[in-house]
Amino acid sequence: MSDITIKIKDREGKVHEVQAPTDMAMNLMEVCKAYELPVEGTCGGMAMCASCQCYVLSDHELPEMGQDEDLMLAEAFYVEDNSRLGCQIRITPELDGLEVELAPES
Amino acid sequence: MIKTDILIIGAGPTGLFTVFEAGLLKLKTHLIDALPQPGGQCSEIYPKKPIYDIPGFPEILAGDLVNNLMEQIKPFEPGFTLGERAETIERLEDDTFVVTTNRGTKHNAPVVAIAGGLGSFEPRKPPIPNIVDFEDKGVAYIIRDPEVYRDKRVVISGGGDSALDWSIFLADIASEVTLVHRRKEFRGALDSVEKVEELSKIGKINLITDAEVKELKGDDHVTGVGIKHKTEGDIHLDTDYFIPLFGLSPKLGPIGDWGLEIEKNAIKVNNSYDYQTNIPGIYAIGDVNTYKGKLKLILSGFHEAAIMCQSAYQRIFPDKKYVMKYTTVGGVTGFDGTKKEAKKEVVKAIG
């Protein structure tokens, strides 16, 4: 299976164009960490810390938000309408060309 | 002054297992942790989540892993300084260290093992511009003494258990309790949510949902908060206290200023030998350290703890020889006088 391309804008405004495999059961938080972008992923991907919060800039149709993610975002800071938790976004072929921006650290 | 052989900073799984490995070598241990209970992230963030990669446990809840570790290390009688953050370290003339916490508790040991994970857990502060100026002047992130709020007006924000539970508790103490949350849904236990709903109906809690505290007002003490409501716009509320309760997040904190070599928020160690840092006598194990090929896994922390204790033994007793023993052979002899060992085989001749 081929990789997809994702554009990630870091907190300094720099855009990183990265390749992510669709067959490794990875999520967006893990992709950020693999490319050493400043995402802590404190809880390891359980939607319990919001350190991987990002804003979705492109109009891709993303998997629907689960209750864990929804309630974590209800308590996170700097939340906008396009906020998602990177750890809850699985890398699939449909996400090719996805553009996101890392939310401020909190 | 608390004296021990290995002072362990961080009471997560790696720190706890260090007690066991040190105990096998007859070394005494004492743990410091900023959280009020042992277990680190496993207890604080995900006690009810199953872990699948602990060798020998096809599945174990993080909280149960901590309970098991506490049981396993009990014979070695570790000391605990909980709810205090290791703040400063100093090296004495005899080459031992003194670590002092934020509450002034002093600990002395020839070896320090930092097993601090991602750091000490600190309250998450909402991004309100002048919030830091009002800390201890009406803003509190932790409720230490509820009596402070007797007959005062209090605004709490957050949507989890602590926001719900404290709103319920303070409803009987404070003259006025307002709970502000960004949603109508709360993340807490169902009966707490129902209790808050009930108290709000009878006017004991002023519940404002779909809203966020955005502004603090006052000169040398909080006198009011500015709230932004999704549909009703800005609301001003007079209050004596603002208590944001948004949980905790780990920060490396003061350890970062101890003169240790830091790389990407982690402490660099000599992994080809003993996980010692650039300061001899200070080791870093578990998620807090970094080296080429590092894996932040609980099992890696256990391994690092075992290796580190051997090196610590040699540092404390440079002249003594020690041969690693298997617990299956030697059993486990606790400092509390207990001894666990395999049952002796019974040999009995037939006839």
Automatic annotation (TrEMBL), chain A:
UniProt entry keywords in alphabetical sequence: 2Fe-2S, Iron, Iron-sulfur, Metal-binding
Annotated 2Fe-2S ferredoxin-type domain residues: 2-106
Keyword Iron-sulfur: yes
PROSITE patterns in the cross-refs: 2FE2S_FER_2
Pfam families: Fer2 (PF00111)
PANTHER family per the UniProt record, alphabetical: FERREDOXIN/ADRENODOXIN, TRANSFER PROTEIN, PUTATIVE-RELATED
Protein known as: 2Fe-2S iron-sulfur cluster-binding protein
Organism: Aquimarina addita
Automatic annotation (TrEMBL), chain B:
Annotated cofactor note: Binds 1 FAD per subunit.
Domain FAD/NAD(P)-binding: residue ranges: 5-297
InterPro entries: FAD/NAD-bd_sf (IPR036188), FAD/NAD-binding_dom (IPR023753), Fd--NADP_Rdtase_type_2 (IPR022890), Ferredoxin-NADP_redctase_2 (IPR050097)
Enzyme class at the top of the EC tree: oxidoreductase
Cofactor(s), by name: FAD
Binding site for FAD: T14, D33, Q41, Y46, A86, F121, D287, T328
E.C. numbers: 1.18.1.2
Reactions catalysed, as given in the entry: 2 reduced [2Fe-2S]-[ferredoxin] + NADP(+) + H(+) = 2 oxidized [2Fe-2S]-[ferredoxin] + NADPH
Keywords attached to this entry: FAD, Flavoprotein, NADP, Oxidoreductase
SUPFAM superfamilies according to UniProt: FAD/NAD(P)-binding domain
Transmembrane segments: none
UniProt record similarity statement: Belongs to the ferredoxin--NADP reductase type 2 family.
The protein's assembly and partners: Homodimer.
Protein name (record): Ferredoxin--NADP reductase
